[in-house]
Amino acid sequence: MKVKIDRNLCIGCGACVVVCPDVFELRDDEKAYVKDEKACERCDCKMAAQGCPVQAISIND
Prior knowledge:
Elements: E1 2-5, H1 15-19, E2 24-26, E3 32-34, H2 45-51, E4 57-60
């Protein structure tokens, strides 16, 4: 699974981190980053993408 965040769209709300803390993290610039996309096997990255209020997360199988 390939997970990508469009940081131009990201508002740093942290919803993705709440759903998948092993995959996503917020950094000092208050934007979300993918820290371990292999961890999608342990959480629901698709739910994180759907929960993003600005649709900044894309997932390709």
